[in-house]
Each structure stands twice: as C-alpha cells, then as structure tokens.
Amino acid sequence: MTPPSIHPMSPDKVIDYFEHDADVGIVGRGATLEQAFENAARAMFAIITNIDAVVPKTVITVEFEETDPELALVIWLNHILGTARQHGMVFNHFQLRRTHNHWLGELHGEPWRDNLERGTEVKGATLTMLSVQSTKGIWEARCVVDV
C-alpha cells in the first residue's frame, strides 16, 4: 500500500499530511476540537491501511483525563494505537466527547483480516510539531507520528 501522499496543505481537507524528515505529519480539522481529533485519528489510520475497506463492526471505548488540548491529542492518538495493538484491530471511524478534562472516545473498526491492505506501521504520536488551534471557526490538530 502506498502511504498517503504528502502535498501542500489544503485548509479545505478534514485530514491532511505535512512533510517531516523520516516520519509523517498528520492534520485533522473540524468544526469542533473533538472533530479535529477524530479526523487526526482518521489521518493516522489512513497511513496504516485503506480505511475505506475497514468494516466498523466492533466498537471499543477509551477514556482519559487531560487538561491541555495539545497533550490530549497525543494521548488520544497513542491510546488508539495501543488499543489497536492490544485487540489486533484496525479502526476507521472515531467519536470523541469531552466534559471538562474527561475525554471519552469510541473507536469503530474490526480485527485485522488477510485482505485488508497493510500500509506503514505507525509506532506512536509524538510531541514534535504538536499544535491544536482554532482559526476562523475551524479547529486544526496536528502532530508528527513515528513510522
């Protein structure tokens, strides 16, 4: 599987990528902070597999506490990766809710199967080029993932 192409950023895309030396920069955008995080998770899993081929038949819940939105992004992404490894799953749909410092997410996906295309392994989300901000009503969450 060819990793998602890296190209000049487009503010209209809900998932996007940016150049980084040996790793991959991911971007998620949305009308809310939570939607931006959900789309960052989609961007990360689009590196791992063709997320359009994943059947979202299993739902796993994850939760964590964090006050800082930037650190919450890294925790969210690493929590998802850990859950995927623990259960041998791949995910393609994400829902996240936040109440103050409490984050509750739903991961929709299925166990890896032979005919799912395997892309590039993502080892983890990093603090490199970490940014979470809102501009003109659009939230953008970005970081570099270690591949």
TrEMBL record:
The keyword Endoplasmic reticulum does not apply. GO terms for biological process: tRNA processing. Keywords: Calcium, Metal-binding, tRNA processing. The keyword Amino-acid biosynthesis does not apply. Pfam families: Archease. One of its GO terms (molecular function) is metal ion binding. InterPro entries: Archease, Archease_dom, Archease_dom_sf. Residues 17-147 form the Archease domain. Belongs to the archease family. This is Protein archease. The lineage of its organism: Bacteria, Pseudomonadati, Pseudomonadota, Betaproteobacteria, Nitrosomonadales.
